[in-house]
From TrEMBL:
Keyword DNA-binding: yes
GO molecular function, one term: DNA-binding transcription factor activity
Pfam families hit by this protein: HTH_1, LysR_substrate
Keyword Transcription regulation: yes
Protein name per its UniProtKB record: DNA-binding transcriptional LysR family regulator
Stretches assigned to the HTH lysR-type domain: 3-60
Family classification: Belongs to the LysR transcriptional regulatory family.
Organism: Actinocrispum wychmicini
Amino acid sequence: MTPDLASLRLLVLVGELGSIGRAAATLGIAQPSASKRLAALERRFGLALVDRTRRGSALTPDGRVVTDWARRVLDELNVLVTGAEALRTRRQAELRVAASLTVAEHLVPGWIGELRRARPDVYVGLMVTNSSIVCDLVRGGDVDLGFVESPTVPTELSARRVASDRLAVVVPPGHPWVRRRRPLAAADLAAAPLVVREHGSGTRETLERALRQAKVGQLRPLAEFGSTTAVRSAVVEGAGPAVLSVLAVDSDLAEGRLVEVAVDDLDLRRQLRAVWPGGRRLIGTAAELLAIALRGGRGT
């Protein structure tokens, strides 16, 4: 059932341009070839996607839904390609960027992609690590700009908020907390063995700070992992509850692989920030990337 990406691009262009011929010309292929690709795509899905008339081509109702999904797939592919290129070129990059894992996975590649569209000659290098090390890299001059998710930033660094985020308590569907009729007490969360990120992670620092502010005790780790993906996978497999960014688990929540558990009297909101050496004004591509992040930051 997996379609090829060229056919998905063709379908999206037909929806945007209202013509198979114009879509084919945009992709540099012949119209008969484009028509065959669309017909093959329709057979593969078992759906009529395009109405073909003398006045042009229009998406069917099913075609509009599939096209929206296709556009999301292509957008995510662009994020993948941009992020991988930034990782590959980080050593010889003109703009050196470091980002904590959540920001790097869900936001930074899109920001870099927008910068590259405006400045295709710019090579951006990306280092992905936890928030504490990002701050060390910025402080030491190893990168030009950093993005962190920790609730505090060292005083010797300048910082700007680029997005808002929220942590969520998540469990697999069969966990006993799912059957609770009332929100979980903050003290119960503090007493529970949790799957957590490593020390230095902004996610862990945010959770520990929230527990201290609620005066309900200290974190009791069941297991520690060095990536959000590893924590998320452990929770899906039933290892235990975790507290993760909604950016990282939104698709799991939407598709029922994980369930969010409400918690009383615990503030799990946080700010995602850009950081750079204190007392220094950002210029050039670093300033351009910060401006893009400030325009495009996602809030939750």
